[in-house]
Specification:
Blueprint lengths: L14 H31 L13 H30 L6 E8 L2 E6 L5 E5 L21 E4 L3 E8 L4 E5 L4 E5 L5 E6 L4 E7 L12 E6 L1 H13 L1
Parallel strand pairs: 1-5, 4-10
Antiparallel strand pairs: 1-2, 2-3, 5-8, 6-7, 6-9, 9-10
Bound molecules: dinuclear copper ion.
Length: 229
């Protein structure tokens, strides 16, 4: 999760988020190089005293500063497209979780397991445990197995919501009347926090998401306990 003064991206918990971070750093590096170059050129204009009354055109320099940015853009566009298609790839998921956005909470369905379903509300500040995170903890967490391909189906019951987990590189809109799909692979155990990220009404800020990433046998224990109750 994000902590104080963390201005960058969160540590990744999935291979796709790792790739997203690499792409972010790559794009930022290009951005910094362009900013430094243009900033230097603009600064140096202050000290330029040369005037050429007969200068009307410069074909060569126009060619250079048209084609060069186009090539630089390709270096961003091609890795971006690679990532876009990589994020869309579904590779034989072993668990499917359906998450439904409501005003203002999420509800979940494990359709593979006798349709285990539950609501997940934010824990209000006055009911928070001492080790709880304000505006981020929920009463019923999603439990999912680590080191497994997981498919998420997202939809909504009233208005548009967005199911977003930064550490996993997942952000999918839940739209009424539609079913959106995404997938991820958690490569470490832990708690991964997220929030709704479509402005969905008065309590938009208060419908967080918590995933408990656990080893597969712990997940089987948890799901079989919930199937029987
Ligand atoms: Cu749901 Cu914002």
């Amino acid at each position: 999760m994000s902590t104080w003064a963390n201005l960058g991206l969160q540590d990744s918990a999935s291979p796709l988020m790792e790739q997203l971070i690499f792409f972010h750093d790559h794009a930022l590096l290009i951005l910094v190089m362009i900013t430094v170059l243009v900033g230097y050129l603009m600064f140096m204009l202050f000290f330029n005293n040369y005037i050429n009354r007969f200068l009307l055109h410069g074909q060569l320099i126009e060619m250079i500063w048209t084609i060069l940015p186009a090539i630089i853009l390709l270096f961003i566009a091609l890795p971006s497209l690679r990532l876009l298609y990589l994020l869309d790839e579904i590779n034989e998921p072993s668990v499917t979780l359906k998450s439904i956005g409501h005003q203002w909470y999420w509800s979940y369905e494990y359709s593979d397991f006798n349709n285990v379903e539950f609501d997940s509300y934010m824990v209000p500040t006055n009911e928070l445990e001492n080790d709880g995170f304000r505006l981020l903890d929920v009463d019923n967490r999603i439990v999912l197995p680590m080191n497994s391909q997981i498919r998420i189906l997202v939809t909504a019951a009233d208005v548009i919501h967005s199911w977003t987990i930064p550490a996993l590189g997942v952000k999918v809109d839940g739209t009424p009347g539609r079913l959106n799909q995404t997938n991820f692979f958690m490569n470490r155990p832990g708690l991964f926090y997220g929030q709704c990220s479509e402005i969905c009404g008065a309590n938009h800020s208060f419908m967080p998401i918590v995933i408990e990433s656990v080893p597969v046998n712990n997940f089987i224990k948890w799901i079989s306990k919930n199937m029987n109750s």
